[in-house]
Amino acid sequence: MTLRHRLLLVYLIVVLLSVATVGVTAFEFNRARRIFGALQPWNDMALGAQKLQSLFGHDHWPALEDQQLAFVGILVGQYPKLAEAADYRAVDPVREALNNLNRRFQSWRELPESEKPSESAAVRQALLAYAELVDLELTLLHAEAAQQETRRIILLLILAGLTMLHVLVIGSLLRRWLIRPLERLNRQVEALARGQPPPEPLL
């Protein structure tokens, strides 16, 4: 193998190791972005669900018009957060639960005051289903975030290992294929300059 081919092989190994390093880093970065990017909207939705439950609890409901408007405002405000969360993960079950809650509440709101107490259970049930789905998703996200922190530490160790591998492989190949032949050539040139036979076969 000529010196040129050896150097090309070293270059190819460097490229492959670099691609592996960049690939692992990009994969983990995308995973972390998806997890941590979704945390904020899901936290906001969980807080919104708690506020809705405080307005429409087990033994009370928003009887006054301003209370109902506050409920509607919080309910409608859940949709932008849900759309933001959809950029990172599937939200179809949560969207369906939110739509069901919206329909139930609007139907309840249009009832005569005398019928609202008997029909409030359906709204509470829809609200509970929505809140439980949001809490479940948020719990899963926090668990994934904790796992991602462990993966981040592992990634740092992998990157350190790949860097060390870069150094060892390149150093070993250069020493074997470049430095040692040059040292051997230098000894041969010095021997020939002194008019002595070279100590090793000519390259």
CATH class category:
Mainly Alpha
CATH fold-type name: f41 fragment of flagellin, N-terminal domain
DSSP, total strands: 0
Quickly give the structural class. mainly alpha
Helix content: over 70%
Strand content: under 5%
- Biggest sheet record: none
> How many helical stretches?
4
The number of domains: 1
CATH architecture: Up-down Bundle
The global form is: rod-shaped
Spans of at least 5 consecutive residues with low confidence: none
| Whole-angstrom Rg | 34 Å
- Average pLDDT, to the nearest integer? 82
Sequence of secondary-structure elements: HHHH
Distance between the termini: 12 Å
Describe this structure in words.
This protein has 203 residues and is mainly alpha-helical. It has one domain (3-193): f41 fragment of flagellin, N-terminal domain, CATH 1.20.1330. It is 84% helix and 0% strand. The protein has 4 helices and no strands. Helix 3 (92-109) runs antiparallel to helix 4 (116-193). The longest helix is centred in the last third of the chain and has 78 residues, at 116-193. The radius of gyration is 34 Å and the shape is rod-shaped. The model has no long low-confidence stretch (mean pLDDT 82).
